[in-house]
Amino acid sequence: MDGRWEPLGLPTRERGLGGGEIEPIRCDGIGLGMKITVLWARNGKDAVPGGLDVKDGGTVEDLMKAMEQKSREGGIAARRKVKLQPTRQRFSLPPKQGEKRGEPLKNGKKLSDYGIKAGSVLHFKDLGPQIGYATVFFWEYFGPLAVYPLFYFLPEYIYSQWTPQVTKHPAQTYALVYWSIHYAKRIMETFFVHQFSHGTMPIFNLFKNCTYYWGFAAFVSYFINHPLYTPVSPLKMYLGFGLGALCQVSNLYCHLILASLRAKGSKEYLIPKGFLFNICTCANYTAEIYGWLGFNIATQSVAGYLFMFAGAYQMTLWAIAKHKRLRRLYDGKDGRDKYPKRFIVIPPFI
């Protein structure tokens, strides 16, 4: 098909008030063939007046292309001037009884895989302007790498208590090295190790994540590099940084294991195995959390512990969700593997 009207062999619809003319349904790159009702997920109101035309046997990608085209034509209710690129679209089935949300449609699937046919109803959410994961990760990690050293190298401009006689403690220097290596590692992993399940996220996350990471970097660095800072004993310092260094290496190895699980382009959820994954579902988070514990044993600052607990709380929520998802996918039924019994993220507690 080259996008031109075909006179024979295609579905048709009447055109004009008198219904005297027959307009064949267009079959171009998007293709048409069946009409689907699309409702706003937030309020159940009609999102596409008159319905959305999608070709029979189409895919989720075809559905999104049709929605994008409709938006360019100004055919989306309450979004007349917004171009809905596929990255900001989320379609889902209507929620079943007792559910708050319906099953989301995934790229790579056919509409028929979800039982969608002419007359079906779908819920739609505009995810808003999007930005790439790698871009967000770079900027949220670049900030701590740039902000933390300012308090170490420029104390005369920051602290009123600073005098030329103030000397740096080894713990302060080692903390700077540890912090810098950690975030440099994160940036390198972003571009050379991680495989993202989703290509984009809402652009608001860039500002939210940068506020969190950049803000905590200044908060932690201010107190650790303060001229009145009191270091811990050398034994605690070396034990803490030793634990932290071990966990940093372990965290990197866990990320390499996760990166090797999926074939390139695959979004399938698989059971991670080997190393700490034989103990914990989210061993990468385990190493991250205990790494910051080592950092705080060596530096002993309230700001550092608050940073650790804030991060541990968020990672625990992510880990619990991932653990539940893997147990649901690998339930041991119908020939599927049974997910092994493991801690979730913080052994021996969770």
Task: Describe the protein in words.
The chain is α+β, with helices and mostly antiparallel strands and 350 residues long. Helices cover 43% and strands 10% of the residues. It has seven helices and eight strands. The relative contact order is 0.08. The N terminus is likely disordered.
Topology readout:
Elements: E1 12-15, E2 21-24, E3 34-40, E4 52-54, H1 60-72, E5 89-92, E6 121-126, E7 130-132, H2 133-153, H3 170-192, E8 200-202, H4 204-224, H5 234-261, H6 283-299, H7 302-329
Parallel strand pairs: 3-6
Antiparallel strand pairs: 1-2, 3-4, 5-6, 7-8
Work out the number of β strands: 8
Helix content: 40-55%
Radius of gyration: 27 Å
Average the pLDDT over all residues and give the rounded result: 90
Give the percentage of residues in beta strands: 5-15%
Based on secondary structure, the structural category is alpha+beta
**Helix count?**
7
Keywords:
350 residues, alpha+beta, 8 strands, 43% helix, 10% strand
Structure described in brief:
The protein is of the alpha+beta class and 350 residues long.
